């Protein structure tokens, strides 16, 4: 953390105004990796300027992919014509910076016959193992050697389609299988796959490149390997996590925010909860330009309609459930709701640590090892504090906060904006990993915040 990595936030002002979200971080970064599989350039639109994108760009460039900015703002052109090996030292510059490098395994094995993956980074929200990834890669025929400096992989007899069943519908492991199976020889059947909208969008990207992928009912995906793939041109789905984060900010601060680019279809579960808490929203669908009339951009306006907010019980889950990345920002708004709200986190075992900071600001949040509300999950028996009870409403006051991870960091920021007084938020640069221009957006919404 640098000395300048601090935001002074003068809270208590409702956020009002409009901001725009671009392509989803958790699709864009994977679509960039997919470009490695093609034998022609790919073109990706609406790419946000965030650190995860920079890390993937750096890794692609190290492996010979030419990445250049296109004519449109946010357009990237990725040319994989000269894919080449990079040294362990070069790759290790990116060690600890993101979790996306694990997805380079399949594409690099296909293109080069070997791969080196540095130590992974990403948010510290529990152990985040990669056992499903390694098991899947081995089943495709990869030889995986874990070394102190990272992971070396080879595929002495090539990669071959296989039958797999994930112990849990992991987003990353599903993407690993997709990115490996599309060029593997034969058919791959993946059971208990994740089917998040970002995964379906990645399937669309791969299909544009020439892949044959069938999404069956009951989380079964079948991939028929093809001998070659071309490039793609793709406009990604919008970032539904960022959109929900700003929605929560509107509710927690008593404000009114129009989120341009946000789409209803992938946010339905969030919208239901938002309305149950007492938040108001209005969806404006995107309208394409027609002869004689300009089109309109889609947006969702989120606001606090006045009056009291109500407590809710929610459980995070894989799609179509309530996303785990939505809970941290929303919990700040739940501190303002009357009654006892319950949040049962079933995707990550340790994603409630950030509530301590909210308590230091006057919130009353208790975390429990039990599975509270809903169905018992796999963490109940394993002694993880993964349920929270939020008693409200609480008047939040300013505090000094240290940002622990991306989504919790955004919740700290919202809490500081909602609180009376001046807070200092340390480690805010971490928010740039997933929120484009968040400081400019805060300014546009009338927040009073400045560096250091
Ligand atoms: N898991 C394993 N073994 C594995 C892989 C996963 O046990 O080999 C477990 C994890 O520990 C976790 C669960 O499976 O308990 C789900 O993990 P998943 O693999 O689905 O998560 P991920 O792919 O690492 C992505 C997003 C996360 C998001 C989750 C869940 C990216 C880059 N990250 O992570 O987003 O929370 O899916 O939707 O796509 C974020 O954007 O801030 C973020 C953390």
UniProtKB/TrEMBL annotation:
Function: Cell wall formation. Adds enolpyruvyl to UDP-N-acetylglucosamine.
Location(s), subcellular: Cytoplasm
A Pfam short name: EPSP_synthase
EC number(s) stated in the UniProt entry for this protein: 2.5.1.7
Stretches assigned to the Enolpyruvate transferase domain: 10-442
Binding, UDP-N-acetyl-alpha-D-glucosamine: 99, 325, 347
GO MF terms, alphabetically ordered: UDP-N-acetylglucosamine 1-carboxyvinyltransferase activity
PANTHER family in the cross-refs: UDP-N-ACETYLGLUCOSAMINE 1-CARBOXYVINYLTRANSFERASE (PTHR43783)
Residues annotated with 2-(S-cysteinyl)pyruvic acid O-phosphothioketal modification: 123
Active-site residues annotated for this sequence: 123 (proton donor)
Biological process (GO), any one: peptidoglycan biosynthetic process
Catalytic reactions of this protein: phosphoenolpyruvate + UDP-N-acetyl-alpha-D-glucosamine = UDP-N-acetyl-3-O-(1-carboxyvinyl)-alpha-D-glucosamine + phosphate
Family membership: Belongs to the EPSP synthase family. MurA subfamily.
Gene for this chain: murA_1
Chief place where the protein resides: cytoplasm
Binding, phosphoenolpyruvate: 25-26
Gene Ontology cellular-component terms listed: cytoplasm
Protein name as annotated: UDP-N-acetylglucosamine 1-carboxyvinyltransferase
Pathway this chain belongs to: Cell wall biogenesis; peptidoglycan biosynthesis
UniProt KW keywords: Cell cycle, Cell division, Cell shape, Cell wall biogenesis/degradation, Cytoplasm, Peptidoglycan synthesis, Pyruvate, Transferase
